[in-house]
Design goal:
The protein is α/β, with parallel strands linked by helices and 240 residues long. The protein has one domain: Spore Coat Polysaccharide Biosynthesis Protein SpsA, Chain A. Helices cover 40% and strands 17% of the residues. The model has no long low-confidence stretch (mean pLDDT 87).
């Protein structure tokens, strides 16, 4: 039994899913993996099921009926992790934008450095560590994070980061059923609520590499949610 679970939400990731699973399992630290698949029509879940015969004790699959947003997929995974007794829970993308080799660094930051949350950060130490993005997308993401820090006052540089390790107690304290946002703002809301509960958040510098295979899930609606969502969070002061 591993003490750490890596949650990977998927929708149409057949090009990446087998490779990312094997890359996670190749790390020196033994991680378990939970795939939360939103009924991918490309057969992503079928690939995972075939791999389960090889990794029967460490690879798990939860299939949902529809495409309901990355936030609800992670919340589904968080609840599954708590129910099954994991002490450390890591969010990770399926497309190799997050390097599996950095998993141990995030894990060790929570186990050895007294952090309650470790964030794989693209923008810490006054650097922009992003590969294969055009300049417009780099600027949009960077200044979005600056905007979030200005509005919410949260002391995190990469507030929209989706490569995050949580200690179990953080997920048990945050009221997951009251998380309001499903897109980029979900990542902001999770960090904001944790900070408001006075949990220790530490950023770990990573290099973020844009996907090579598959299609981006970014949409104008997700960006709009993030922009206006942070204002709502700041005004409401979540949690009380």
């Amino acid at each position: 039994m591993s003490d750490a679970l890596v949650i990977i939400p998927t929708y149409n990731e057949k090009e990446n899913i087998e490779a990312i699973i094997k890359a996670v399992f190749s790390q020196k630290k033994a991680f378990h993996i939970l795939i939360v698949d939103d009924n991918s029509p490309d057969g992503t879940a079928s690939i995972v099921k075939k791999l389960q015969s090889q990794y029967s004790d460490s690879l798990f699959l939860e299939q949902r009926k529809g495409k309901n947003g990355i936030g609800t997929a992670y919340i589904h995974g968080f609840k599954w992790a708590i129910k099954n007794g994991y002490d450390y829970v890591i969010e990770m993308d399926a497309d190799f934008s997050h390097d599996p080799a950095d998993l141990i660094r995030l894990y060790n930051t929570c186990t050895n450095d007294e952090a309650d949350i470790s964030v794989g950060s693209r923008y810490v130490n006054n650097k922009v560590n992003v590969v294969n993005w055009d300049i417009k997308r780099v600027l949009l993401s960077y200044f979005a994070s600056r905007y979030v820090r200005f509005i919410t006052k949260i002391p995190v540089h990469d507030t929209t980061a989706g490569f995050v390790c949580y200690k179990r107690k953080v997920l048990e304290t945050i009221q997951l059923d009251k998380i309001k946002f499903v897109g980029y703002a979900f990542q902001i809301e999770m960090k904001f609520k944790a900070w408001k509960h006075k949990f220790n958040i530490k950023e770990v510098p990573i290099i973020f590499t844009d996907r090579v295979l598959g299609e981006s899930k970014l949409s104008p609606g997700i960006i709009k949610e993030a922009v206006f969502g942070v204002i709502k969070m700041r005004l409401s002061g979540l949690p009380k």
